[in-house]
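request received
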Amino acid sequence: MSGRSLRRHVTSGLMTGLVAVLSFTAVLALVLILGDLIAKGASSLNWDFFTKNPVPAGQSGGGVANAIVGTGIIVGLAALIGLPIGIGTGLYLAEYGSGRLGWIVRFVADVLNGTPSIVIGIFAWTWLVRPMGGYSALAGSVALAALMIPMIARTTEEMVRLVPHSLREAALALGYPRWRTSLRVVARTALAGIVTGCLVGVARIAGETAPLLFTALGNLNFSTSVTQPMQTLPHQIYEYASGPFEEWHRLAWASALVLMSLVLLLGVTARWAIRQRHGAAR
Amino acid sequence: MAPPADARLRLEAVRLTALYGRRAVVKDVSILFPAHTVTAVIGPSGCGKSTFLRCLNRMHELSEGGWVTGRVLLDGADVYDDAVDPVQLRRRIGMVFQRPTPFPTMSIYDNVAAGLRVNGHRGRRALDDVVERALTQAALWDEVKDRLRASALALSGGQQQRLCIARALAPQPEVLLLDEPTASLDPAGTQRIEELCHELKRLYTIVIVTHNMQQAARVSDYTAFFYLGDLVEVGRTDELFTRPNEERTEAYITGRFG
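response:
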């Protein structure tokens, strides 16, 4: 083996090793977080944790049922508001957004995408909480929806753009009106990608805390009224983790484990959705 | 001898120029496509033959910067008239593309029915009949009749292309435009499509763009030779290939350029 060839082999080996170590580090972080959560949180998971509400400070026992239900309601409502708007915007951008208006919408979406979530929270407080005269779950949902819309819009746009142009032309040549081409052929072909984007978007906002501090506020009691303050898991974790009691810390770990599992579940579902579609379509 | 009942049915381009922005890619072309004939459009890559075809069903204007001058007459009426809805027009002029383009989310049946459903035909029985007829015309029925609900992507490339032909035929257009329909097919698939052209001209007026001169000679009654956006020569296929009038036509068909 000549000197140059040897050097290439050595360099190649070193780089491969380096990349392997780096990817291992990335995976290791996730494994450590999950492992730690399970180690510290799993022991506190029991029936009471899911069905009971918090007990007054200092007492032992109790659960976070109000926060779990609250997260469900607030995130669900946010998805209800945010997904149609986000998907609609994404479709518009991909199908009709080549003009000036499209450019503006895209620019605004990108800026909004980069806006810190706490800033969104402050705006939701200014525009919703103050005029409505009080903190509410609805205001929290709107803040989360605002956070989600630009994300959903941009991923939807990307997914729709992946649909081959020839498919669009085939539909138009068959006498499809343009709107019907967009919905029946293009959007349907991109559906797996759009659904994945939505699930990832929902998972992203499910863990948000900052925008909820100024809007949903938190609630020690069980509440399903969207016009009243409501507790959520991230908020619960924030409160319990920063509190002085050992019992609270335990519950915070368990809550974190539950939240993380929810997010993971959404992620796995997204993967599964892609696999299903591709399996069926292939 | 009495002329056939639908002798009027024909397609004609009159002084048609197609442009992208300010660049003309088809220049001042006038040509008549008689009813129930196959006309082949040949020429080297980039000669404007595909663009010309796309002007006939107003697909060219959907391309970025695409517009036309001149007229295209279908049964004597200008398809570029303000009163004509291009969406309706495209239901009268079917088109098949270079590569098979089945709708991936739809079954074989739904692909063929797509053009009818968009027209508002929903009767279950009627749809069944039309789908069977279109698939039979496209010589695909026997191969797919037992799996009409399967995904269209489960078919081979050649079958997919015949599916696209069936899809174009189902709404019963008057004209069929084929844009290099065999470009991505193997010889067997190509032969099937060429045989189809012979079958289908009894019912439709066909314009086929091809870069393959043997194919033009095999399938067409008339051949038009395009070069650099100009229609150089058009005539009966047997005459154009044996006794071309133009120097450039002869040079192209004898393989001296292109």
